[in-house]
Design goal:
By secondary structure, this protein is an alpha/beta fold. Helices cover 46% and strands 11% of the residues.
Length: 295
């Protein structure tokens, strides 16, 4: 059990840049993006700000992007798939994030990664963005941390490989659960199948966190599960470093984490990996959470 003061609020776990793009009826310039990102980084006062590159597509559309209509947009043309095809737009964003990093502590996170070649292409553009900033004599963070959002089954299965080339990973549990269980979480007919206690979801989350720890990099969780009290014993057991949630949940989550014994939770997570029934898993970890909160 950790003392309460050892569990710190540590910056912004996910800054969604599509909201910046949503302020405009055209592509925002480098200067406009820099103004937005640097303001957030400065207000963080030295704490890390994880800035996710543009995650457009899926359920997030902007008219000026003129994206094609798709039958399955969540499995379609979105996030880095769009950005890598629109290199100058992507470069402007990367330059703005890098420059904002000179004002504090920013990190770059790429969404919707499914294979190593995508991450390599993104890193190549980060290097190109650095060169462009140098040419313009614009200060930037030369050692900025670069990571991925693990939200596809592919990146979770390959977590051990990605952990060797990333500075950090953050698990996007909402999309990961949706993709692993093959369910549209907004479809009431199959809502019961959208279940984060599905053993396959838990195994991929555990694999990702443990792969990151073995590689010596930070593993975080964002999405609804990061603030779900009944799921947190499992995340602690796997060895998660950071949880990103809405501010309203922080105190409750902090209170719970401080009352969990990491070794006991590690044994719990190992036990859960041998259970096939999602409802049995949920019942077990819920009882653990409730006992801890009752202390």
């Amino acid at each position: 059990m950790k003392p309460l003061e050892d569990i710190a609020y540590d910056g912004i776990g996910l800054f969604r840049t599509e909201f910046v793009f949503g302020r405009f009826s055209r592509y925002p310039t480098f200067e406009e993006q820099y103004e937005a990102y640097s303001e957030v980084v400065k207000k963080a006062e030295g704490r890390p700000v994880i800035i996710r590159t543009l995650d457009i597509g899926g359920d997030k559309d902007l008219a000026y992007f003129e994206l094609p209509k798709e039958e399955n947009p969540f499995l379609g043309y979105r996030a880095v798939r769009v950005c890598l095809d629109r290199e100058q737009i992507f470069l402007d964003q990367l330059m703005a994030i890098l420059a904002a990093g000179a004002c504090g502590k920013a990190k770059i996170m790429f969404p919707m990664i499914t294979e190593m070649s995508e991450f390599v292409a993104c890193k190549r553009l980060v290097a190109k963005a650095k060169n462009l900033l140098q040419d313009r004599k614009i200060p930037f963070d030369e050692d900025i941390h670069i990571g991925i959002m693990v939200e596809t089954p592919a990146s979770a299965v390959l977590a051990d490989r990605f952990a060797t080339v990333c500075d950090f990973v953050s698990i996007g549990t909402n999309d990961l659960t949706q993709y692993v269980t093959c369910t549209d979480r907004a479809n009431p007919n199959i809502q019961k199948l959208y279940n984060p206690y599905n053993p396959a979801v838990i195994r991929l989350i555990g694999n990702t966190i443990r792969s990151a720890r073995q590689a010596g990099i930070e593993a975080g969780v964002c999405g609804e599960l990061a603030g779900e009290l009944n799921f947190i014993p499992l995340l602690v057991g796997f060895g998660v470093n950071k949880l990103s949630m809405s501010p309203a949940l922080i105190e409750k989550v902090r209170y719970l984490v401080c009352r969990l014994n990491q070794r006991e939770m590690s044994r719990l997570s190992d036990q859960v990996l041998n259970i096939d029934d999602p409802y049995e898993i949920e019942s077990l970890v819920t009882s653990v959470s409730e006992r801890a909160l009752a202390i």
